[in-house]
Amino acid sequence: MLVHVYPAEELTCRAAAFLFAAQLTQKPDSVFGFATGSTPIPCYKDLISFYEQGLLDFSQVISFNLDEYCGIAQDHPSSYHRFMHENLFSHINIPKENIHIPNSMGVDACERYDKAIEQAGGIDLQLLGIGKNGHIGFNEPDDAFSCGTHIVKLTESTIAANARFFKDEKDVPRTAISMGISSIMACHSIVLIATGESKAKAVYDTLNGPINPHVPASILRLHPNATFLLDQDAASML
Ligand code: F6R
Q: Which of 39, 78, 162, 164 to mutate to test the pocket of ligand 1 (most atoms within 8 A of CB)?
């Protein structure tokens, strides 16, 4: 596992954009895993800028997002569908039919998502943020690591953290659909970005504590090709 610490948030996210750019340059039909939240936004801005400058071509890319809330429409202002379109997809030339975002509709929704990832040949490069409680995707602290895509009950801490994207905390959905820990560990390469002091404890526990499901990100230490990109604030307890 590699850990890099950068002097500023912008540089940390640019380092992630460089990894995506290198992967895409070497494999034009790369399968990318994307995350939502505040953390990756500067990375997506850089990818858009690389595309606009003619450095990158997303026309053969296939993408899978980590997660989505249950019970809100795709065009809801706070849906992850909407987030991805506004912050990345509508600015690059990825074909609409190549974009996959989990959708909790239908009894076999989770199995279908896992099958689609498998049929695409697996995810070449997965982007991750990290929750203040060490969650990755919506894999919350628990007594066991989760397996494939599944429906999750959000913790109070995640509901409170995500309330900023909704009018009111009570509007935050209580459940979500998320790729599981096994799905994440099956990705060929992983890049996790953590920025800001509020992530320092989660980063410390992930990298220095025991590998255990109460800090879901800690399992990434067992991944053969995981890279942690941290700004100085997120790395301040290391
Ligand atoms: C979202 C996701 C979450 C976030 C995490 C950090 O797709 O996978 O695990 O990465 O909650 O969110 P931010 O970046 O908003 O601090």
A: 39
For tokens 């026309």, the residue is 59
| CA R_g for the chain | 17
Going 58 to 72 to 139 to 200, the CA torsion angle's sign is positive
List the pLDDT tens digit at each of the 238 positions of the chain. 999 999 999 999 999 999 999 999 999 999 999 999 999 999 999 999 999 999 999 999 999 999 999 999 999 999 999 999 999 999 999 999 999 999 988 879 999 999 999 999 999 999 999 999 999 999 999 999 989 999 999 989 889 999 998 999 999 999 999 999 999 999 999 999 999 999 999 999 999 999 999 999 999 999 999 999 999 999 999 9
CA of 134 to the centre of ligand 1 (A): 10
Helix-strand-coil split of the chain, %, nearest 5:
40, 20, 45
Q: Please state, in angstroms and rounded to a whole number, the distance separating the CA atoms of residues 99 and 63.
A: 5
pTM: 0.97
Query: Which among 46, 140, 231, 233 is annotated as catalytic?
Result: 140
Asked if 125 and 119 count as a contact pair (C-beta separation under 8 A), the reply is no
Q: Which two tokens stand for residue 151?
A: 């429906």
- Concatenate the DSSP letters of all residues of 45-113 into one string: HHHHHHHHTTS---TT-EEEESEEESSS-TTSTTSHHHHHHHHTGGGS---GGGEE-----STTHHHHH
Could you identify the residue written with the tokens 């953290």? 161
